Amino acid sequence: MAAHPAISRRAQTLGTENAFVVLAEVNALARAGRDIVSFCIGQPDFPAPENVQQAAIRAIREGRHGYTPSAGIDELREAAARYMSAMRGGLPIRAEDVVVGAGAKPFIAYAILSTTDYGAGDEVIYPNPGFPIYESQIRACGAVPVPIHLREARDFAFDPEELARLVTPRTKLLILNTPHNPTGGVLAREVLQAVAEILRRHPQVWVYADEVYSRLCYAGDFFSIAQLPGMYERTIVCDGASKTWAMTGWRIGFAANPALAPVFTRWVTNTDSCASQISQWAALEAINGPQDAANAMRRSFLERRDLIVRLLNEVPGVACRTPGGAFYVWPNVTDACRMVGAADSEEFRKRLLEEAGVAVLADIHFGARVPGEGQHLRFSYAASREAIEAGVARMADFVRKNTRKAA
Question: Residue 25 pLDDT > 90, yes or no?
């Protein structure tokens, strides 16, 4: 094969989302006939609601096949503005402040690109552990990634005093994710108030509020930092259809900010042109139609959360806190690693997959390990009760069997 020209350093160093990498491993084992219980991928295991499916079919039949405006169809922008406002204490979100994207994920890059300049030393503070795309996009966009550590003792929130120390004159963007992937943690109102107080001293800092799990909040009503005095104008509120209505593959997200909406619209024009028109009409029905299916999914996730937390806490060497939202748990497996002679959570994860047929993700798939916080795994409990019971039982057997061997 002939040699090809060089690939850019940016492309060579671009990070990825390891959930998809591990999923490929799992699928390869399954194709080879292995029986695998998978807790890897963060997506609802339900179909999209029937009324949403019908709305998409209707859009196809009615010939809605062309481009839409880059910011999205007017009807969906209006519905998303009403919905995001109602979910957040009546924020003054207008249709013209909302941009529809091909999922919520592109807005991570658009937000970084719109608030930092390449190679200027602009800093972005982001949660660690965190959704891996935050760090990879900060680097790819030529900004400086500054992790803020989430602490188990704080139910996976960060210490506001640590944030105060990390903000510098070069800080341009703070990424907040609540409810949080991968830990399921929720940033309580008091934490957000402390954050807002700190940011009042730093008017140059934008906030990216990643709130795609806002409807999967189990600890009281959802609360956004944008609801606090002085925060709405400087906060990019991001939500979407994927997690709430089981529409991950339909690729519809929405972001709202009065100043940045026109900028985001230009980014969409430069990248995707627009989100799928068919998916936009389906998302309009998801927001405006009956919420029975979304509410039933939420109830099911809550039941599964309680089940998996109880079962994991019965596994030798495992301690699992009860997360406040999303559909993830982040059990501490420091003792279990020691008991089975695994050097760390990644070795534990690999052995659990190979020897017990249980697929999970390790903490290092979500950023560098937080010093002093031990070893963790991520389970997505967007899985059936039977899968949860069988998978955790296999994990317990794996620990018990290997503890005897290690002894």
Answer: no
Q: How far apart are CA 262 and CA 272, in angstroms?
A: 15
Catalogue all structural domains in the chain, each as residue range(s) with its CATH number.
9-47+293-406 (3.90.1150.10), 63-288 (3.40.640.10)
Q: Is 325 helix (H, G, I), strand (E, B) or coil?
A: strand
What is the Cα–Cα distance from 341 to 334, expressed in whole angstroms? 11
How remote is the C-alpha of 206 from its chain's centroid?
19
How far CA 41 is from CA of 27, 50, 112, 192, 248, in Å, comes to 12, 23, 25, 29, 11
CA gap 340, 193 in Å, rounded: 43
Which residues 6+ apart lie within 8 Å of 209 measured at CB? 176, 178, 224, 225, 226, 235, 236, 237, 238
Contact 319, 313 (CB under 8 A): yes
Q: Provide the pLDDT for residue 295.
A: 97
Element (H, E) at 345: helix 345-356
User: Residue 99's beta-bridge partner residues?
Assistant: 255
Predicted confidence at residue 407, as pLDDT, reads 67
Question: In the prediction, which pLDDT does 144 show?
Answer: 98
**Total-model pTM:** 0.96
**pLDDT number for residue 136:** 96
77-107: pLDDT as tens digits? 999 999 999 999 999 999 999 999 999 999 9
For every residue of 380-395, DSSP letters joined together read E--S-HHHHHHHHHHH
Q: Could you tell me the CA-to-CA distances from 217 to 48, 58, 87, 104, 174 in Å, in that order? A: 20, 32, 12, 18, 22
Gap between the Cα atoms of 123 and 117, Å rounded: 10
Neighbours of 292 (CB within 10 A): 10
Distance of CA 369 to the CA centre of its chain: 18
Tell me the pLDDT tens digit for each residue of 177-205.
999 999 999 999 999 999 999 999 999 99
